[in-house]
Every structure is written in C-alpha cells, then in structure tokens.
Amino acid sequence: MSFWEKLGKIDRKIIFLLMAVVIIIPLLSPLNLVGKVGRRTQELFRAIDNLPENSYLLITIDFDPQSMPELYPMYLAILRHAFAKNLRVIVTGLWVTGVGLGEDGLKTVAPEYNKVYGRDYVFLGWKPGITAVVLGMGRSMKETFPTDYYGTSYDSLPIFTKDITYRDIPFMVSLSAGVPGYETWIAYAQSRFGIRIGAGVTAVSAADAYPYLQSGQLTGLLGGMKAAAEYEFLNEKAGFTKAFKPASQLMDSQSLAHLVIMILVIIGNISYFALRRKR
Amino acid sequence: MARTLPLALCFIMGVLMACQFFIPHPLSQSFLDLIIKWVRIISAFALALGVRSVTLRHYERIKRRKGEWGFSVVTIVSLLATALIGLIWGVGAKSYLRLIFSNIMVPLGATMFSILAFYMASAAYRAFRARTKEATLLLIASFIVMLGMVPIGTAISPRLSDLAEWLLSVPNMAAKRGIMFGVALGVIATSLKIILGIERGWLGGRR
User: Residue B11 to residues B4, B29, B113, B193, B199: CA-CA distances in angstroms?
Assistant: First the structure.
C-alpha cells in the first residue's frame, strides 16, 4: 500500500481516539476561546430583556436527553435571564421525555434567585394530544391544564390570577429538537393566536429555521451550543448571573472537534486527488 | 358501513375545521373549544391504545421466540416497571421515577447522541470528496459554516462567522424556502385527498 493509499485509509479506531482526545482535553484544561455573539442570539436575548416585569414567559421543553448537551444549557440560560428580570415563568413541553429535564432546570435555577414555586414559576408537565394542547392553551390555560405537574389545581396557583391564554403571554421560547417543536407552535399557536415565538434548536437543524426568521414568525434563534454559550455570555455581561457556564466550557471541545473533522476531510481529499493523478 | 362512516366523518370534520379557521364568530370559537376537548380525550385513549399495541407486539415476539426477542423482554419489563413505579410512588422531583430518568434515561440518551460525533468524523473523512464542482462547493460551504459556528473560527478570522451567517441567511434560506413551499403544497394536496376520500390508506391498508 502506497503512502497516498495509507493516507486515505486511516483506521477508524485512530480517528475515534483522536476525536476523544480533542474533546476531553479542553474539558480538563479550558482554552477559553471567545466567540462573537450572533445576531439571532441577540434578537432572542433582547426580546426577553424587553419584556416588562411580571410578564409571563412560556418555555416549552420539546426535546429529550439525546439533545440535552445542546439545548439544556440554553434552557438554564433563558431561565436565569427570566428570573433575573422577574418574569413569571411557565414551563411545559410537547415531548414526554423532556418532562424530567424541564423540572430539573427549574429546581437548579429557581433557588439561585429565591423564586417561589407557584408564585414566580410553574411547571405544567406534559399532556397527550399535541395539537389539542397547543390550541387549547390559546382558548383556556385552565381547561388545558386544570392542574400543574404535581397535581395542584390551577386556581390554587398564585401565578395565575385568571384563566390566561396566549393573549396574556407576550413571548414564548420553544427549545426544540424536532417534531413536535417550534414549527408546531408557529402553525397552531402563532397562526391562530399571534403569540411571539423564539426558538432554540440543535446546530444541525438551525438551517431549517432560517426561513421563519426572515418571515418574522420567529423572533430570535439559538442554534446549537454556540448560541447557548453566547446567551450565557450575554447573561453574565448584563450581570444577571455568575453561575457556571456549561455551554461555554463545551464550546472549546466543539471547536477542536470541528477543526479535526476538517483536517481529516482535507487529508482524505489529498489522498483522493493524489491517487487519481497516478491513475 | 365500517368504511363509509369514518370516510363521512373525515370529510365533515375536515371541511368544518378548514372553514372554522377563517370564521372568528363566537359560535365558530365554541365549536373549536368543543373539538379541542374531544381531541384531548381521544388522544388519551390513543395513548392507551399505543401502549396496548406495543405490549401485544412484543408479547408476540417473546411467545414465538422471534428474532432478538430478548430486547422485547427488556421493553416490556421497562414499560411495566416505569409505569408501576410512577403510579405507586408518584412523579415528583425526589421520586423513584425521577431516579430512573436521571440515572438511566439521561445518560443513555446523551451517550447515543455523543457517539454520533465519532461516527460523523469517520464518515466525513471517508465519504466527503470533492469529486465534482457541486461537491467542492458543498465542501467549501460546510468548512465555512463549521468554522463560523465555533469560537475558533472567530479566532482565525472575525469575518468567518459573518460569512457563515450569510450562507445560512441567503443561499440556504432560498433553498429551504423552495423545499418548504413544495412540502406545504404536498401537505395541502394530501389533506384534500384524505378529506375527499381519495386517499384511504389511513383506514387500514385495504382500499
């Protein structure tokens, strides 16, 4: 086997090992690379930042543990922003596997801001009947969720001063890893009831959301871990939090992983062209 | 009758719901409220049917020792165990169900997704070749977006993230929008075919 052939046939074990090394090393010794805050992240940050105190903010957990590394840091960052701005946070979700994550985030962040369950935030959990749930919240939150996740009746929760609908919620964020997700909220909650929506999505699906940005159906977009890290940066810059920034730390690993993949692709192509010229 | 009634119901409800969207009259809104309640109730039953279907399917596999039936045992045991644990001890933050979720579901899900990075690196190295002009263009665009989406790209050149944003906002969006229009027209056509009874696959296969 010639040198060029060997170059094009690197054992996959070596590739896996290389990837493991470039992912693990920055976790142990952060490089602290600083990126530029993207326009879409700034739009979402501003949309939440401009909400008046005590406004409702609806956050929907439309993802599962598989997308957790990218979307969960976004959730934490948005919660910190919302609590720092004294917004009333309502959390629900269209994915049953996201219920635990939704609850975990609230349990982690709410104590940092001395927020009280039922008064400052509420967790509604998950219900079957995706379309009916999204449409139902536009007609009556009380009928759609007669109780919260823990079985407390709607009327016993001080956060709800009346039977609210989307008209009472000036902004919502869907953290979405697929379908149902932000597109479901756009199709049923926005087209019928006009609620403003921002979205957080995984990096691979960010490109799909761009048409909704230009049409104005989405107000701001967090695309992947980079956007989560940018949101963490904006929170810290505004003095909203000094908490650990998980996405920012993981960005170093992602940066190097991207670089290694690119180098591998270049090596593969060098081998390909060298062999083609020989033939 | 078994086929005519569902077809008639589908036609009536399809037409009514399409019209309802454009009528803001209180009567129309009350109708929507009623339908939402019905859908919620039906969805709960559908969930029960789904559980029944999964259980029966795996039960059959175990009974016939078909294929990798051991996985079916795991599925049924997991289904029953999580359901019973949730029903008996509740679903709160300190419940056993949360313990299972945090210590089994979360690490397993995260592991599955993390493994992708390794396979993607290996697959990209083997398959991503600049064989044609189109492939070369794709390769260059992917490099720009990959670098533009991470801080190391900004460290190399601050313009890279702007260029990546432009690629996503202009050429990508133009292509995506075309695809989305096509999909939307396809959805409308399929919906009409279902409402008018031309497409009957949803009835269970036989036409």
Answer: 10, 20, 42, 10, 12
Q: Kindly report the number of other CB atoms within 10 A of residue B53's CB atom.
A: 10
How far B1 CA lies from chain A's nearest CA (Å)? Answer: 28
Q: How far apart are CA B117 and CA A217, in angstroms?
A: 32
Please, is A243 exposed, middle or buried when counting C-beta atoms within 10 Å of its C-beta (0-12, 13-18, 19+)?
Answer: middle
Question: Got the DSSP string for A102-119?
Answer: HHHHHHHHGGGGT--BTT
Angle at A203 between CA A86 and CA A234, to 5 degrees: 35
Sign of CA dihedral B122, B123, B127, B128: negative
Model pTM greater than 0.95? no
How many CB pairs lie under 8 A apart between chains A and B?
173
Peptide bond into A111 cis (omega under 30): no
Distance from B15 to chain A by nearest Cα, in Å? Answer: 17
Sign, CA dihedral B35-A215-A197-A200, equals positive
Q: Which residues of B touch A208 (CB under 8 A)?
A: 176
Tokens of B106: 């979360």
HEC profile of B173-204: HHHHHHHHHHHHHHHHHHHHHHHCCCCCHHHC
Query: Over the stretch A140-173, which tens digit does the pLDDT of each residue have?
Result: 999 999 999 989 999 999 999 999 999 999 999 9
B143 interaction partners in chain A (CB closer than 8 Å) = 262, 265
pLDDT of residue B9: 92
Q: Residue B90 gets which letter from DSSP?
A: -
List the single residue in A with minimal CA-CA distance to B126: A268
Q: Which residues of B touch A252 (CB under 8 A)?
A: 151
Distance CA B46, CA A10 (A): 50
Q: In this structure, how many other beta carbons lie within 10 angstroms of the beta carbon of residue A88?
A: 25
ipTM score of complex: 0.79
